[in-house]
Structures are given as C-alpha cells and as structure tokens.
Amino acid sequence: MQHNLIINGKEIAITARRISDENIFIKTGQKEIEAKILYAADNELILAIDGKKYRCFISASRDKIYITLDGINYKLRVNEPDEDYNSGNAHGGDEEIKSPIPGKVVKVCVSEGAKIKAGDLLMIVEAMKMENNIYAPFDLYVENIFVHEGESVNTEKVLIKTKPISTE
C-alpha cells in the first residue's frame, strides 16, 4: 500500500507491505528495502536490514508519529489529500515537542524565546546509556521549556512548546 508521508517537513511516497509475520518490504523512489523484525514491544522495534541491526523507538501523538533511529529523530505525518503542506505555514499553530522515548534529560540546548533553525539540536534525552538527540523539525521560536537537565521523562511529557517562524 502506498502512503504519502511528511517526514521532517518533506513529502515522501512510501510503499510498504508485510511479506510475512517477520518481514516487511519498503520502497521509496528507486530504493527497495526488505526488513526483518527481530523484536517488537510497545514503543521499541529492532529491525535487521542488509545484515545490520537498527533499534527504533516509536511514539505517537494525535496526528504524528515520532521515530528515533540511531539517535536521530524523525517526525512523520500522513499527508491527507485535503491538507495543503505547500502553502503558507505548513506547520499550522503551536507545536508541542515530546520525548520519543522514556529516559532522562541530559542536556537542554536552547532557551525560551530563542529563534531556532530546522535541524538545530534542542535537547538530548538518554535511555539505556544511548543518547537521543531531539532536533528542531522546522524553523521555530521556543515558547516554553517544561523540563530541566536530570529530569526523567516519558513519551507523553511535553518537553518544549514552540511556535513556527512565519514564512511570510
């Protein structure tokens, strides 16, 4: 089945189908991948792709899916046909950034009121001795920071409230 996803603000067409209970076929553009599911839990997935293991942490909000893969965060959203992501402000109103995994905040890299560019490091959350960098998904202003270094967080905890920078 083909899906049009918005991944960190970029639209990508992905075809995915389950081959068996353990195997998934994924195609994006000309690239084809077969992944084997080695482990699946509530918010954790371990995949084998071309003999290499990948650990993913997954969380979801009402309309977005957050995936952390090799310490890099991805924000996914299914592009509904009636939504226009190419006009005006593609990010709508305020955005709440949550932790993609349960863990401990080891570093807050921004301050309230700061103007941040897409891809800038916002915060680092550590889980099981693995650091997960949380990057800005788009150009934004930091409105509020709700956590401090050393604080334990779960996937429901809002870390930062942001406001998109106007594209006008």
Characteristics of this structure?
2 domains; four-stranded antiparallel β-sheet; Glycoprotein, Type 4 Pilin; mainly beta; OB fold (Dihydrolipoamide Acetyltransferase, E2P); 0% helix; 168 residues; eight-stranded antiparallel beta barrel; globular; 16 strands; Biotin_BS
What is the 3D form?
Answer: globular
Number of helices: 0
Quaternary structure: single chain
- Structurally, how many domains make up the residues? 2
**CATH class categorisation of the largest domain:** Alpha Beta
Average predicted confidence as pLDDT? 80
Distance between the termini: 36 Å
Structure class:
mainly beta
| Low-pLDDT stretches | 81-92
Task: Provide a descriptive summary of the structure in words.
Residues 94-163 form the Lipoyl-binding domain. Keywords: Biotin. This is Acetyl-CoA carboxylase biotin carboxyl carrier protein subunit. Helices cover 0% and strands 58% of the residues. With 168 residues, it is mostly beta strands. Strand 5 (44-49) and strand 6 (52-60) form a beta hairpin. It is globular and about 45 Å long. The model is unreliable at 81-92 (pLDDT under 50). The chain has strands spanning 2-7, 10-18, 23-28, 31-40, 44-49, 52-60, 65-69, 72-78, 95-98, 103-108, 115-116, 121-127, 130-135, 140-145, 152-153, 158-164. The chain folds into two domains: 2-78, 2-Layer Sandwich (Glycoprotein, Type 4 Pilin), CATH 3.30.700.30; 95-164, RNA polymerase II/Efflux pump adaptor protein, barrel-sandwich hybrid domain (OB fold (Dihydrolipoamide Acetyltransferase, E2P), Beta Barrel).
